[in-house]
Amino acid sequence: MQSSITKVLKAVADPTRREIFHALVVAATAMPITQISGQFQMSRQGITKHLRTLEEAGLVQIHTKGRERFCFADPLPLKEVNHWLKFYERFWDTKLQDLSSYLDSKSD
Amino acid sequence: MQSSITKVLKAVADPTRREIFHALVVAATAMPITQISGQFQMSRQGITKHLRTLEEAGLVQIHTKGRERFCFADPLPLKEVNHWLKFYERFWDTKLQDLSSYLDSKSD
DNA sequence: TTAATATGCAACTATATGGTTGCAAATATA
DNA sequence: TATATTTGCAACCATATAGTTGCATATTAA
User: Fold this and answer.
1) Which of A93, B18, B23, B54 could share a disulfide with B59, CB 3.0–4.6 Å?
2) Which domains does chain B have, with CATH numbers?
């Protein structure tokens, strides 16, 4: 099976899914699928598929009420991404590789 | 064209690419492709493809010396991912949606 | 009861992705 | 010069992904 962080990263790697997720976060309220898909050019089914991917990553939660399915954002899984990133933070502003160290390596 | 952050997220969404990238970061030195691929089960060509994806995301830099191509990690593009994440940080530990707010919405 | 609305499921398409193998070219070594 | 090493390119394959449309079903409203 795919690891949790892989699922989350794959989910947010798609720009449409990032848009959907963002819309749900800023709305800060649960929205039925049709209402969400109304904000996009894409077909409702396209949006539904993206919502499922987001749901499987844990980034969206969906609850049924009557004929509607209310979706809301759950940013918690992003914490794991943040933790993964954290390790590399110390290297962001330091060059990892000084070119001269290998450009001269054969002349020793 | 794909946005920069989409490229970076897609690059790190693959577990093998995360492994390659991590190996290069901890090595903290430039390594030729054959040496990198020696650390994986996958074929050299498979690794080369992943390296190209990482390179296109800016996460790996490659310099040719003689018949060898030295690769090293450049974590800088992760800064952009970190910036994207930052916005959602404030929501990690607060429930975005109180279920009661919509479960009762129709009874008003 | 009839009509409208919200949704899921299934089928289908096109393209991207992750991986392989074989071969040719360039460089380094004996 | 002859051989070994490092690599890129191309072809190929299987599967995943992003998207569509059509239709059936459940719920709500008239």
Assistant:
1) B54
2) 4-89 (1.10.10.10)
